[in-house]
Amino acid sequence: MVEMFSYELMNCDGAARRGRVTTPHGTIETPAFMPVGTAATVKGMLPEWVRGTGADIVLGNTYHLMLRPGAELIAELGGLHKFMKWPHPILTDSGGFQVMSLSKLRKITEEGVTFQSHIDGSRHTLSPERSLEIQALLGSDIQMAFDECTPFPATHSEAKKSMDLSMRWATRSKTAFEKYSAPGQAIFGIVQGGVYEDLRRRSAEALQEIEFPGYAVGGLAVGEGQCEMFRVLDFTLPHLPAEKPRYLMGVGTPLDLLGAVERGVDMFDCVMPTRSGRHGQLFTFDGKINIKNARFKDDPSPLDATSECPAARDYSRAYLHHLIRSGELLGAMLLSWANIDFYQRLMAEMRAAIEEERFEAFAVEFRARYQG
């Protein structure tokens, strides 16, 4: 019997929520951070390493996988879970954000987006129908409605036009999902509207009329800054139903995650832990570390002797410094592993704090320690 998608809100502490998402490929404990596996891999990490950090779910991307190796090929090979050796939940982004970033290579119409591949210049069209067809071929547990990610800055009229288009596409996405999806899978709608309260409210209301099993907040972390992002969340999240999961797309730093959980967000994804790791930046409970700094050249201590992650526990800072300064692949791999592990430990500690109704104290303590 296929496990159907569901969400259980288990406890609240203030606005912070502790929950559980059930999918055909397993459960997701929330608040949850999803490592980004854009092209069917979390860069520099084996799937068993990712799982070992405590990650319940990873993210794949429609745009990149449709271009290479192709969704039809992945389907022929048994679907994305088998293809990337990840038998746990997968969420796929719709490709809308990537298409937005190709501003010089794409044309938006009511039908969808025509664009040139960043790989070979070939022309493609991505519409709500094609995006959901691709996501169904990939076989992801959670699929995203196709939307236009409103750029920042945008005037009220520009943001309204973009949001209205995304809402029309949301209706088409839901219809396409119902046509292509397999039992147990889910589709999330995406709230747009820029930084404008009235537009965010109208978008949230429009999506609830369409009825989705989960809701994402998109169009943030695109240059508006943390204070503005939190302000938008403050007036957006109250318009989303409490009994369904809330996903903040493309976020973010450890302090972003903490602040968003405080406001009632359940799910996150971001390339930051792996991208930062590849460039020598590490996240710890005592703040950020640039392992390239000369002071680590002869430091025999590990990143975190208390960690269960081998990358953080078993290698000296001097060795990691050497690897990164030498451009060795192992350096990027170990630092990415340590960062993903830190993010998962942070989420686990937030979940425990919400369960025990001490989240406010945890947040104060974490901020003080992290910011030094």
Stretches with pLDDT under 50, minimum 5 residues: none
The residue fraction in helices comes out at 40-55%
Structural class by helix and strand composition: alpha/beta
Strand order of the largest sheet: 4-14-13-12-11-10-6-5
User: What is the CATH third-level topology name of the largest domain?
Assistant: TIM Barrel
CATH 4th-level superfamily of the largest domain = Queuine tRNA-ribosyltransferase-like
The proportion of strand residues reads 15-25%
Radius of gyration: 20 Å
How does this model look, in words?
The chain has 372 residues and is α/β, with parallel strands linked by helices. It has two domains: 6-270, TIM Barrel (Alpha-Beta Barrel); 277-372, no CATH class. The chain has helices at 47-52, 62-67, 71-76, 80-83, 96-101, 128-138, 156-180, 197-210, 226-236, 254-263, 272-278, 310-313, 317-325, 329-355, 359-370, and strands at 6-13, 16-23, 26-30, 32-35, 58-61, 90-93, 106-108, 113-116, 123-126, 142-144, 186-191, 214-217, 246-248, 267-270, 281-284, 287-290. The protein has an eight-stranded parallel beta sheet. Helix 9 links the parallel strand 12 and strand 13. It is globular and about 60 Å long.
What is this entry, summarized?
With 372 residues, the protein is an alpha/beta fold. The chain folds into two domains: 6-270, Queuine tRNA-ribosyltransferase-like (TIM Barrel, Alpha-Beta Barrel); 277-372, no CATH class.
Strands, helices and their partners?
Blueprint: E1 6-13, E2 16-23, E3 26-30, E4 32-35, H1 47-52, E5 58-61, H2 62-67, H3 71-76, H4 80-83, E6 90-93, H5 96-101, E7 106-108, E8 113-116, E9 123-126, H6 128-138, E10 142-144, H7 156-180, E11 186-191, H8 197-210, E12 214-217, H9 226-236, E13 246-248, H10 254-263, E14 267-270, H11 272-278, E15 281-284, E16 287-290, H12 310-313, H13 317-325, H14 329-355, H15 359-370
